[in-house]
Amino acid sequence: MKKISAVVAMLAVTAFAGAAFAADVIELPASMGKVSFPHKKHQETLKDCKKCHEKGPGKIAELGKDWAHKTCKGCHAEMKKGPVGCKDCHKK
User: Fold this and answer.
1) Among 3.40.1000.10, 3.90.79.10, 3.30.43.10, 3.90.10.10, what is the CATH number of 24-91?
2) For residue 55, what are the contacts with CB-CB under 8 A and spacing of at least 6?
């Protein structure tokens, strides 16, 4: 019985890990142009999902213009790395 529980637990961890590392690039629709978000690159650079996903892995419920401008631009300015200008993120 313990072996079955261990196998089920391992499958659950594997499925969760696959969901957490799902997309390499995420296309976000934006009113001023499409924004491509290189998710995998951010994972490799930050190594801390909670920097963006405060409540754990998954979609960001608050994701929108105000959140992205505060969180994304703020992090880029803080790290002195990444785009901070409108046309750097918003492509037509």
Assistant:
1) 3.90.10.10
2) 61
pTM, whole model, 2 decimals? 0.65
Write the single-letter amino acid at 59: K
User: Would you say 60 and 50 are in contact if contact means Cβ atoms under 8 Å apart?
Assistant: no
Could you list the beta-strand ranges (E) of 21-74. 26-28, 34-37
Backbone torsions φ then ψ of 35, nearest 5 degrees: -115, 120
Given CA atoms 68, 72, 77, 78 in this order, what sign does their dihedral have? positive
Q: How far apart are CA 55 and CA 67, in angstroms?
A: 15
| DSSP symbol at 14 | H
Task: Decide: 56 and 48 in contact? Cβ < 8 Å.
Answer: no
Q: What is the pLDDT of residues 3-59, one digit of tens each?
A: 554 444 454 444 444 444 557 998 887 776 789 999 999 999 999 888 888 887 788
